[in-house]
Write a structure and sequence with these properties.
Serine Threonine Protein Phosphatase 5, Tetratricopeptide repeat; SAM-dependent_MTases_sf; single chain; Methyltransf_25; 4 strands; 4-stranded parallel β-sheet; about 10% strand; TPR-like_helical_dom_sf; methyltransferase; transferase; elongated
Length: about 220
Amino acid sequence: MRAPARSSGDLLADRRYAWAEAALAEGDAGAAADLAAQVLERAPGYGPAWLLLGRARAADPALRDEAAAAFRAALALDPEDALGARLHLAELGDASEEAISPAYVRALFDGYAGRFERHLVEGLGYCGPALIRAALERLRGPEVRFGRVLDLGCGTGLMGRALCGIAGTLTGIDLSPGMLAEARRTGLYARLQEGDLRDVLSREPSGSADLAVAA
């Protein structure tokens, strides 16, 4: 899957796109829509500009149909929907397809991977992996140990670190290559698998794990 282009390939269009984003962030949806339309005059194949045009038009209830048309144009240029056009269409009441695509989730977490732990642990006080470790020790005793462990949605490896000392062979599964790259840096995983959990698990042999965790 190829990620949506960060640039339209046209310097002036890119500048207007940045101005359109700024206008929308400041609450001026009309100016944002006008600027996004100017971007598309120069770069009609630039999917992010269609998405931005849709977001700007969706701010006005009278322009919902025009917003939906813009989101569909973005989706036509990005069929795997890394941009998240389906989610915006669902917000407008069009639930004809699954709202959140794997490509969108992948792109979202790839962009988030570098700051994921800092935001989740330091910013939000997330302690899910530690709670799971404590629960396992309560259930099985302080000497608990599992030979083969699957870390489902392993992210950057927070759960892997929490399982140190009680996991033998650790396999991590995640949809995001960026997250898996961070998990690989921990050196804790014997195997890392990229893909949708349903697809990856369907290929795992029966009885291939002693423990599966998701945090």
